[in-house]
Write a structure and sequence with these properties.
2 copies of one chain form a homodimer.
Chain A (H helix, E strand, L loop, with lengths): L6 E5 L4 E6 L5 E7 L13 H17 L5 E4 L14 E2 L4 H6 L2 E4 L5 E4 L3 E3 L5 E3 L2 H8 L5 E5 L4 E7 L2 E8 L1 H11 L1 H4 L9 H12 L7 H4 L2 H7 L8 H20 L6 E4 L2 H13 L6 E3 L2 H12 L10
Parallel strand pairs in A: 1-4, 4-7, 5-8, 10-13, 13-14
Antiparallel strand pairs in A: 1-2, 2-3, 6-7, 8-9, 10-11, 11-12
Helix pairs in contact in A: 3-11, 4-9, 6-9, 6-10, 9-10
């Protein structure tokens, strides 16, 4: 029987990733299912979640029935299996570990759900899942951790605590503009990502022209095409650079000192943000890999789910 | 037989409005068809435009075969009946009148298409149709003319010339965000427009929180709902106010002095912009009605299409 000190789930909106850890705190096995919470049929109450849970890790549990199980992500939202109330920032690893929400499954297993975080204020901000990625990416006491994606998050870490964060809907706005506005109509998919076009968009967002604001600058995706100054195949990457550039320009207004920077996300997206950050004068943004798995492990350790005999 | 010195068409993307003028330069009759250029079947070349044209005004032409015909809007775009090349700004009424593009229809009529305008520069800007509305709205030598809509335009008029303009994709971005992002999922249609929610969005765009930029502030539509501070029925109007507020905040960076202001567009939209402008300290924005018809008449006069015996 394998030594499995932890089974962990990253259970988001569109997908479910499952990890089986070994005694050294490393991932021994992982799998990905399309059973995100929006894709799970829940007409019959929690039965859809039960089925997806069993599909994800029933064999692991049968082989190691005493293994604790932890989960992060939208599974803890109001639309998930059970709501895990947001924790206020500032919050650190121990705060997360102390605030797990338990769900007993029909097979008698207990799923421990990590809470999301809320930053209260005139415009509140929330995250769910990213707090665990940040927990896995923290290697120094102070940093800005950037999590580019559908909803990019920029997280300020001080003394190993998450003290503030900001959400930018960059990825989702990009997708909506490409698929559902005039801008998408003249775009053609390039054979490979057009990084010079991306850089050009970033440069516009850093230029005096950006005073006109995003609602205006994005129109140049169309007009530069009209005057023959931007090929159809370059328009999507140009728009991507424009939006990422507007995100970083705004971030510069929010952050007194945006360093050191650690990026967490898909390689392709992190490389884009590295390029854009370099254009903004931040040439040394690091990319953290495996942050989600490491974060799940760390929170489980902090919560005492993993015995102290293991590498925590 | 009626005295019809001019037949005029406002032929846009989604609709076609036709006007028959009387000898006093007033609209004697008008009609609206759903034959915008994107809705006209053009598989058979220009035949779709011919049919829509005949449907719009064939009876008027048979009653008054010598009436000149003028048109503005997307009918003069590359996707329209015939491309009417953009005219560079600065441009005035006489410049527009001198630059008409002629299309001879299969019935022998001549359609005179008013050119759009282009503002060249690092980020070029274009308009097509709005130049005619501006021509109809100019009552003083100097003004800022705002044309809220799918693509809002802000046009600077000096010495009765259009010297510069800026496009904001506010309306189209609003529609895409509501229909195709997370923000729309929790929105519920209010029984009546929620103007206090609109004002609240405008106020956020004017507040220090707006430093985070539009990609970030729009997320508050969701999070304010999450914390129970914004009802589902208020979320669309709040987002509308946010976007219009970001538009006006950017405009303030572009305009040294944004007065006097004249608004052209649907009543509902102009009243929203009036509210938002008042929040930005511009309490006296006027609303011009009938600008399109008056503009078509004025350009036709300037071009010499309407005999001098008529009120030009």
């Amino acid at each position: 029987m394998p030594d499995t000190p932890l089974i962990a789930l990253d259970w988001g909106t569109t997908s479910l990733r499952a990890y089986r850890f070994d005694g050294g705190g490393q991932v021994a096995e992982s799998r990905q299912l399309a059973s995100g919470i929006m894709r799970v049929t829940t007409e019959d109450g929690a039965a859809g979640f039960e089925r997806a849970f069993e599909q994800a890790c029933d064999d692991w549990r049968r082989a190691s029935p005493a293994s604790p199980i932890i989960a992060c992500g939208m599974i803890g939202s109001a639309q998930g299996w059970r709501e895990a109330a947001y924790l206020d920032v500032p919050a650190n690893l121990d705060d997360l570990g102390r605030a797990l929400t338990e769900v007993e499954t029909r097979s008698g297993a207990v799923l421990h759900i990590i809470p999301g975080l809320i930053h209260r204020g005139p415009l509140p901000d929330v995250m769910r899942g990213e707090e665990t990625q940040v927990a896995g990416a923290i290697e120094r006491a102070d940093a800005w951790i950037g999590l580019p994606g559908t909803h990019s998050k920029w997280v300020r870490v001080q003394d190993r605590r998450i003290v503030a964060f900001h959400t930018f809907m960059t990825g989702e706005v990009f997708a909506a503009l490409c698929a559902h506005t005039l801008l998408g109509r003249t775009m053609q998919r390039p054979a490979a990502p057009d990084l010079p076009a991306f850089d050009r968009g970033v440069a516009v967002a850093r230029s005096p022209e950006a005073r006109a604001g995003l609602l205006s600058t994005i129109f140049s995706t169309r007009t530069l095409g009209l005057v023959g100054a931007l090929a159809a195949e370059a328009q999507a990457d140009y728009l991507s650079g424009l939006l990422v550039g507007h995100e970083l320009a705004a971030l510069a207004h929010l952050a007194e000192r945006l360093e050191p920077i650690v990026l967490v996300g898909s390689d392709e997206l992190c490389l884009r943000y590295q390029r854009a950050l370099a254009a903004f004068g931040h040439a040394r943004a690091a990319i953290a890999s495996g942050a989600t798995e490491r974060g799940l492990w760390r929170v489980a350790c902090s919560a005492g789910l993993v015995p102290r005999s293991h590498t925590c």
